[in-house]
Structure formats: structure tokens, C-alpha cells
Design brief:
Number of helices: 6
Order of helices and strands: EHEHHEHHH
Strand content: 5-15%
Strand order of the largest sheet: 1-3-2
Distance between the termini: 47 Å
Number of strands: 3
């Protein structure tokens, strides 16, 4: 079963209207987590990390071509950031995969620091 991966992050869900129509025309499966949250209050977009467009891993190259065609994708944007790599690596962890990647990272760093402090204080 293909996992869904993030291919585009936007601040405004309205920017996805044309793109969604094209994805549906091409029969590409997609998800838009936190879309409704950002529609309720656009300022929430920053808090939840933007509106993420996610597609199946097997369809990423096809979607990238579509994004280039529509002007959403530039070559320098194709490089994955640390947070994108972390999202891909940690999205299979139960419970954590329901949390935004940034918050997931902060939780894991906090746990690591607490364990390290516990070990240091023990000796």
C-alpha cells in the first residue's frame, strides 16, 4: 500500500482550487490535511504548518510535472527540507503520525532531552 507524502505546502487553501480540479481530472489520489482548520481561521495556517497537499508515493513524479505545468513548482523547491525528510521517516510511528511534523519533532527532542537529563542527574 502506498503511503501519502507531502508534495506541496501552501498558506492559503484557496490556492488549491485549480490544482484539485486537475488532480481529479488525472485520477490522482490526494489528501489535504488541516484544510478545514485553515478555512475556519486563516491565521491558523501558520500554527498548523500550512495546507499540505499529499499524494501517493507512486504518483509523486506525475504530480511534480503537473505542479511545474501549473506554476506551483520550481526546481529549487524540489529539494526536500529537513522537516520533509523527518515527516517521511517518522510518519509510520503509531500515534505520532497523527501529529504535525513540527510538533512531532519537538516532542521527540523533548523526550530525548528529558532522558539525557535523567541519565546525567542519575550519576
Amino acid at each position: 500500500m502506498d503511503r501519502f507524502v507531502t508534495v506541496l505546502i501552501l498558506n492559503n487553501p484557496i490556492d488549491l482550487i485549480v490544482l484539485r480540479t486537475r488532480l481529479e481530472d488525472e485520477a490522482i489520489d490526494y489528501l489535504v490535511p488541516d484544510e478545514l482548520t485553515t478555512q475556519v481561521n486563516p491565521l491558523y495556517s501558520v500554527a498548523v504548518g500550512g495546507v499540505r497537499l499529499q499524494v501517493r508515493e507512486s504518483q509523486v513524479s506525475e504530480v511534480q510535472e503537473l505542479l511545474k505545468e501549473l506554476g506551483y513548482w520550481e526546481e529549487q523547491k524540489s529539494q526536500r527540507t529537513f522537516l520533509d525528510k523527518f515527516d517521511s521517516a517518522s510518519s509510520h510511528v503509531p500515534f505520532l503520525n497523527t501529529i504535525q511534523p513540527l510538533f512531532r519533532f519537538l516532542i521527540l527532542v523533548t523526550i530525548f532531552v528529558l532522558v539525557l537529563l535523567g541519565l546525567l542527574l542519575k550519576y
